[in-house]
Structures are given as structure tokens and as C-alpha cells.
Amino acid sequence: MAEFRWRMVQLDLARQKETVGFIQDFISFAADSGYNAVLLYLEGRVRTKSFPYPAAEDSYSEGEMGEIVEYASKKRLEIIPATQTLAHAEQFLRYALLQPLSELRETNLSGRWDTPARHHDTFCPSLRGTREFLAAYLEELATIFPAPLMHVGLDEAWHIGICNLCQQHPEGQAGIFLQHINWLYSVVAGKLGKRMMLWDDMFQHYPEVLPALPKDILLCCWEYGVIGETLRWHFGDQPPVDKLKEFSSLGFECLTAPADMTWLNPVSFTRYAEKRPCLGGLLTMWEKYSCFYHASLPVVAATGRLWSGSSPEEAFPAGVRALFGVAEPVFLEAIRSFAELSLVSEGLSGSPENYLQGGLTQQQAHRRAALRLLSHIWKEKESRITTEQGRTVLQDILGLMEQVLLRYQLVEVLPAFYQAGSPAGKRERQSLANLCRLLEKLREQRRTFWKKVRPGIPETSLVNMFDCLLANLTALLEKPVPGVIKLKLFLTGIAQDTEVLVKLAGTDSYQRVLDGRLTSLTGEAFYQRWFVFPFSAAPEQLRLETRGYGTQGFCYVEIINQAGHFVPDALVSVKGQVLAPWNILKDSNSWVLAGEGYTRENFLHHQSFASKRRHGLEIKLREDGSF
Fold first, then answer.
1. 594 pLDDT exceeds 90?
2. What tens digit of pLDDT does each residue of 487-531 get?
3. Does 626 have pLDDT greater than 80?
4. Which of the four pLDDT bands, split at 50, 70 and 90, describes residue 610?
5. Coil, strand or helix: which one is 256?
6. Measured between alpha carbons, how far is 8 from 17 in angstroms, rounded to an integer?
7. How far, in Å, CA of 610 to CA of 108, rounded?
8. CB-based contact 123:134 (threshold 8 Å)
9. Of 255, 304, 610, 611, which alpha carbon lies 20 to 30 A from 161's?
10. CA 614: distance to chain centroid?
């Protein structure tokens, strides 16, 4: 493959702080792997004169960052800072002195997705104070980081145009976005002499902004799936678009921005980019607060070699051999198989309800079999590893795999504890007790690994995840749930909130059982989600309602508690936009489509739409005596 001009890899230091020693070791690894730049995703992780609020243990000093830059220069590698200048600004706006700069600073206005007023995660771009603070902070970053590039973020800025001041802008949300980017450009390019980088996703909402922007802005085009001939936008109806071709036709240069989640992502993205104008690549890695970077290093090593001109067939084995010091074909193929599995959505979480999906899917069963085989291969070949870094990487991989395999066991065992409010059988209780012991053992293993690779950094997020799950599982052993509501759904929109309300027999009003995002836990189109039904009385009627910027597919619903097994009997009413509501009455692969598909229009007209229009149906329930 052709060599990229820019070959960057990212460390997300905003979500999880790493030691200076780890960052320096990573810089050496990146240089050896063929990269010529490391992008440090910082948000507000660096404390400066204009931003002195973070505690020393939660941030980096200018001196520490300078030490990192100096080390990188010896490796002939650029350190590029990435901060946030619009959304993802929680690290700045958590401090009371900066909260007057928040878009949702006013008590009478809520954001998109029903975000409550005074939720501080987005700068107001219309305030002079915002510009003064950002100008000072960007200038300080430019002094610390002499690289010719600076990344200003601008992704996922959901709350543009919400506050009363922004609503007065004569050119609306697109005008606000354009004005803010042009102002940032005047600082970064004009005053600081840097080339400005930014993420590309908000141009889905404001495409008219692109032609009016300075053409030397470097667009980072991110996509984390397996890519064919086109990409897709990241929101709502997600129409296909040949982004690199479109951006190039407007005069922009771009970077591909895949992620470390699966080796298939950078490979397919690079093949797509080879046929289009592309300046380089940026391999992103995100949110390692309850996991580690080490399991991703095979993908990092291979991607650097891929972007340096090697083919995928050459890049991956070369990266693995350098990382582990092992050349055996079986070992290499085992690492490749692991790197092609996307395990990001398969880790552990604290809530038992996040394992209630109706049992393992076929894909998960196949993945479990693969992980068991890979684990056997690696434990047999572990003594062949000749590098200390390789041994550490394999330790992380095996720990991550144990977490995923434990998840699959919970998916199989937990449903027995959500059936009809009755205590689970002796065998199921023993299985869950055994899993709790495994969880305790795994927690200590991961804590030990944390102390090894993150010495001196509190492991709070990791321990909290394990402790929360253990506490919830122990509660299940001690007290059964009253009942369960089983929802069968079809994946359509990606930004829907669903509310489930129930009217019990002998009552006149509805009570809320659930209100939240019913995402697929498996990534499959047809999926199930189970939730606690907190009542022992018989449910008489049910309401399913959805709201947000898209649609939700409902296939079927059941309630099981001490009073019996209840299923749909008849439609009572339909509310809002609902297609084929009768499909809810039968348990099949047909679905009800509820909601509005005009996601971009509703996003732009937030004040009238307000993401609060509800769409759904009311169902009369009957007891199913055959259960």
C-alpha cells in the first residue's frame, strides 16, 4: 500500500490519565511501528495559567508535557495536542468559575436528548468569555507543543443553538458553527501559526458550512466499522456518502480516522482511502478508564506498518513479530484472530440488566468458542515470547478475554433470576455464586495489572465497575426480583429513548417501569432486552412510547411476575407516528415502527421539536395460561 504523509496514533488521556513513563514508552513503540506523530487527546487534562483548576493528581503540568515533547523529538516524532473547543467540554465546565460559559447555563432550557438544564458539557460559542478563555488556553497549548498541527475537536456538538443568546444568531445553528470555526481558525492558524485539525461528523448536520471554510483545515474523517466503497454518517438515517471524495472536491485535505477496536477497520478504511485523495491516517483509541491500551498494541503495530507502505498481509505479521519476538505461524494467526474480533461492546458492566438479552446469540457462541481456543493456544505458547512488552500485552489480552467469557456466562445464568419472582433453583444459585468468586478473582488480577502499568494512578473506575457488579449479583442471590418485562426489538434509529408504562389491575393510572435508551447489546438487528418489573400484581395495560431523533422498532412484549405470564391481547390506542402497530400482537419477526425518520430536520428545529414528541401504542394485556 502507498505510504501516508501523516501516520498518527492517538492516546486518550482525557478519559484516563497515564504515567509520563508509559507515554514515553508508547512514543518509542509508535516510532518503531512507523508512525511520525502521536496525537494526545487531552480535553482539559493539562493545567495552565489560564486553566489552573485541576488537581495535580488529575492533570499534567506544562513541565510534564514539555518532557514528553522533548522525548518525542529525540525519536523524530511530533506530539500533536487535541483539546475540545465546543462539546465534550466537561473537564473545563465542571469548575464553577467556568460554568457561566456553558451553553446550558440557563435554568429554563434543556438540551437535545432531554439533557437537563445546567448540564455543563458544551461551551457557548456566542459568549465573549468563551472566546477569551479558549484563545488563552490554545495559546498556552501552542507554547507547550511546537508541532505544526493542533486539533480543536468540534465533534458531537449536540447542543448548538440552545441558549437564548445563540437563538438570536441571524444565520441560525449553521451560522453559529461556521462563525465559531472561523474564529478558531483565526486563532490557531492566524495567531499561532498552526494548521487546524477537526473531526468531520457535525458536517452531516451543517453541510452548507463546508464550502465557506478555509481550505487548509485538515478534516479527520472517522469511521469505526468495516468499510466498503462508501462511508456512512454517524447519526439518524445514516445515508452513504463518499466522504473523502466529497471533501476533496471542496478543496480539503483529510485524514482517515479508524479505531483500534478491530484490525478490519484500519485495513478496510485504508483500502477505501487508497482510491481517493488522502493525506494520512489517525488511529484513534478511546476510553481506557476500565481497561488498558496493551491489548490494542498488535493493531497499533500493524497499522503503523500498513500506513508506511506494507500490505495488510505483510504489516500484521511484522508487527506481531516485533511486539512478541515470536515468528510461529500458529501464534501469529491467533493474534490476528483476536485483533479482528471487536470486543469493545462485550466487556463487563455494573448492571445485571446489561446481560439480559435472551441468552447468547449465535455470533456470541461462535466468539466464545474462538476465545477459548485462542486462550489455549496462547497459554501453550506463552513461554516462547521473548520481549517483556509482549508478555505484558498477552497478560492484558488474556485478562480482557476472561472478562468477555465471564460476561457470556452471566448472559446464560442470569435469566433464571428474573423469572416470575420465584427464587432460582439450587443449580442456578450455585452457578451464580461461582461466577461471583470468579469475578472477585478477576478483579484482583486486573487491579494487580493496573498497579503494574499505571503505578500511582488510582484504579477507581476499574474497581467501581467490579464492585458494582458484585454488589448487584449478591443482591440477586439474597432476594429475587418481583418479575421481568421482556422486550423484543428491532434496531432502527440510534438515538431513541423509550418509555414503558404499566397500569395494574384495579388501578386507574399508569406507572413508569422504564425510561431510557434500549440499545442492542449484541449489535444484531433483532434483539431482546429484559428489565425488572417491580410489581407483584397483575398488569392490565401497557404503553410503549419512544421519543428522539429517529425511529424504534417494537416486535413483542411480555411480562412475567408472581401473578402470571402476560402478553398483548388488543390495541387500545396509537399515538404519534406509528407504522403497523398490529405487529405488536404476535410474537414474530415483524415489527412496529414508531417515531420520526426525519432526523436531521428534527435536529435542526430543536426548539419546536424539542425531542419530546412521543410515538407509541397502548396495549391491553391478557394472561397466557399456557406458560
1. yes
2. 999 988 666 789 999 999 999 999 999 998 888 888 788 999 999
3. no
4. low
5. strand
6. 20
7. 13
8. yes
9. 255
10. 26
Of 316 and 600, the structure prediction assigns the larger pLDDT to 316
Nearest to 141 by CA among 105, 184, 111, 171: 184
Region at 152 (left for phi over 0; alpha for psi -120 to 50; beta for the rest):
alpha
The pLDDT value given to residue 612: 67
d(CA 568, CA 541): 9
* Dist. CA 318–CA 316, nearest whole Å: 5
Confidence category of residue 321, pLDDT binned at 50, 70, 90? very high
Q: How far is CA 257 from CA 74, 151, 266, 489, in A?
A: 26, 13, 8, 31
Helix or strand holding residue 587 (H, E): none
Q: Residue 549 and residue 143: Cα distance in Å, rounded?
A: 42
pLDDT band at residue 627 under the 50/70/90 scheme: low
What are the φ/ψ torsions at residue 463 (nearest 5 degrees)?
Answer: -65, -40
C-alpha 314, offset from chain centre:
30
Q: What pLDDT score does 524 carry?
A: 84
Instruction: Using a cut of 0.90, tell me whether the model's pTM lies above it.
Output: yes
- DSSP-based three-state secondary structure for 89: coil
Cα–Cα distance measured from residue 375 to residue 331, given in angstroms and rounded to the nearest whole number: 11
Distance from C-alpha of 419 to C-alpha of 14, rounded to nearest angstrom: 42
Average pLDDT for 303-324: 97
CA dist., res. 235 & res. 147, Å (int): 33
CA angle 353, 354, 357 (to 5 degrees): 85
- The C-alpha atoms of residue 437 and residue 497 are separated, in whole angstroms, by 35
DSSP 410-449: HHHHGGGGGSTTPPPPHHHHHHHHHHHHHHHHHHHHHHHH
Judged against a pLDDT cut of 80, whether residue 237 lies above it is answered with no
Nearest to 339 by CA among 283, 266, 440, 404: 266
For the beta carbon of residue 400, count every other beta carbon within 10 angstroms.
21
- Residue 618 and residue 571 in contact, taking contact as beta carbons nearer than 8 Å: yes
